[in-house]
Amino acid sequence: MRNAAGIDTSEPHSARVYDYILGGKTHFPADREAADDLRAAWPKLPTSMRINRATMHRMGRWLAAEEGITQFLDIGTGIPTEPNLHQIVQEITPASRVVYVDNDPLVLTHARALLASTPEGRTRYLEADLREPGGVFGSPELLETLDLSRPVGVTVIAMLQFVEDAAGLVRELTASLAPGSCLALTTATGDITPDEVTEMAQRYTDRGVPMYLRTRDEVVALFDGMELVEPGVVPMNRWRPDPGAPPVPDTDVNMYAGVGRVV
Question: So where does this one cross the membrane (predicted)?
């Protein structure tokens, strides 16, 4: 069933499920039913999602402050939840440029929040599917905003678990990037809490959203051909935690995090 905006409201979408669990307002009954079912299988899902968001913030700050990257491509943006990536990186370098990509039409309706750039910088929004990198890297929105001859920070946060051939997709994404670019990702695993998270993934799959859990070795392999940045592939709560932050148990998360540098 599609509403007036052409959005299929009868099937859950990962961006809207994520929004509902984080306390947002942009979702439909199918998204809420799916989210409640997932939380029933693994009650710590909301905690893990909040940690995932915080991990993205740390990755964005590191890419901007430590790597000096000023161009960013955020694939699988989701419904805006402040602070967004451009707010993180433009606080460090106001002239930073960010292109957001998502395939949920509802994200487009919120694009104005994503386009609130600093005067020195620039943000653009592209409605596209991450599984078709050619359409992303060949789009006018990207080519008018980012200079692909210079390093780009690509963030793929909590998205690759919905892609069967994640390794092939990563190869395509990084093929268009200049040396010095970085790929930052988080993706789901059943390594840490296998029973609950495996059940959750099965429930998501049963609702028409296939979810692929990956081992640590499989996530490490996604960075083949890149220089894996310290601390490597780790439970996302362990990826460069803020100094003095209270420790987070590994069992509160269901994702690995890692950053690879294109050489």
Answer: none
